[in-house]
Specification:
Shape: globular
Strand order of the largest sheet: 1-3-2-6-8-7
CATH architecture of one domain: Alpha-Beta Complex
CATH topology of one domain: Amidase signature (AS) enzymes
Number of helices: 16
Number of strands: 11
Helix content: 25-40%
Radius of gyration: 22 Å
Protein name: Fatty acid amide hydrolase 2b
Pfam families: Amidase
Family: Belongs to the amidase family.
Order of helices and strands: HHHEHHEHEEEHEHEEHEHEHHHHHEH
Strand content: 5-15%
Amino acid sequence: MAPSGLEKVLASLFWAVIGLLFAVFRVLSRKTAAPAAKLPSVRNPLLLVSATQLAKKIRRREVLSVEVVQAYIDRIQDVNPLINAVTKDRFDAALLEAAQVDRLIEEETGGEEVLEDRLPLLGVPLSVKSSYAFQGMPFTSGLCSRRGVIASVDAPPLTLLKRAGAIPLGTTNTSELCMWSESHNHLHGITRNPYDLERIPGGSSGGEGSLLAAAGSVIGVGSDIGGSIRMPAFFNGIFGHKTTPGVVSNENQYPPSSGRQEEYLSLGPMCRYAEDLKLMLKIMAGPNANMLSLNATVDLKKLRFFTIPHDSGSVWTHPVSKELMEIQRKVVERLEADLGVQVQEVCLPELSYSFQIWDTYMKLPDDEGKSPISFTELMGEPGHPAWPSWELLKRMVGKSDHTVAAIALGLMEMTHGSKPSKVIMQLKEDLQNKVDELLGTDGVFLYPSHPRVAPKHHHPLFRPFDFAYTGIINIPGSCRTT
């Protein structure tokens, strides 16, 4: 479905204004550019081992949990001044818990197999996104007005990971209220990509992505309603899984889901090594792990593969770079060569309306007709809703507690109509049906995580809709993505 003439005109005007603002931004940013720096190299070999293998080494007494935890503490202290990923640490408590683990293993009489079954992550360090409730730790989601909020309970997935023996080292940064592709807020500051400190690590789980990539953590937990696990995974070269909604509990996180957002919000694992995804998912899902076929053997040669190289030409998103399209083409060639399969290229024109579909469904009321909590209400918590126009004026003189991104989202919310478009809802249904028919129970499709590699800091303000490449995947309920 091609964009209408009016859409093209509106898009042209919008990008003309954005282009002018971007030109001003570049002039101003040249005056404040910081000198380039690089992270120190990894020296401790314990930082280059998966969580699965670390747990095995700890159970076999090949290494002490205290040694592993201390290695990660040392690394965080080395890298966090540069990347600003950890918002609050609990190093002393973590070392005490690691010492308890070592005593438990020393006293265990049942053998390694018993420990593996009961405590599969025993003694392994863990990092936690600060939007999760983590008992005794700040529970802020980057909102200045929540600076004094301390969680009184653990979010259920965190409880399960701790019961499995994982040792949390601290909490990590997010975008303000977890609703932007850059992890930046005025409470904890800006988080940087460890591969290039001038670039973003993504959002909203950007603190997790940055810390994992910097070898400051080996496993972590994130959440995703529009790409908040997958963008940081892509930008930082780590692994993340956006779980199917309803598998991992969404309870006790902030902001809470409302309206129909529970259908699109997912909590899931993030890690530096792919082999840890399955173990983490099994633990985080708890009793819901039975909903998944995690122990099934999959013959890749019997799957059907499809490639979708771009969103069919949306006027609101950046075209996919030639570099990324070439990489996806090479992946296709490798699959065909190694597995002997044929990867079919398909086109789904409805994807050109990805942002509009995602935005529409995020605003739908629940089955009882209750609309989702507005973004301006969340910005003003615990008081009255924020006034984005007033916050913009305050921002111009450096007095607002809110980021430009959050203010822009608030302004956009106020200017958008609340009545859903029947055309957009029909496009979603058409896309849903096509995806269901295409994938069936044995289909896999390749699709870009983002149209560009990790942007430089603040550049997403001038390409605000590029997250639609991941956002659209949250809407069709049949999609399973990693």
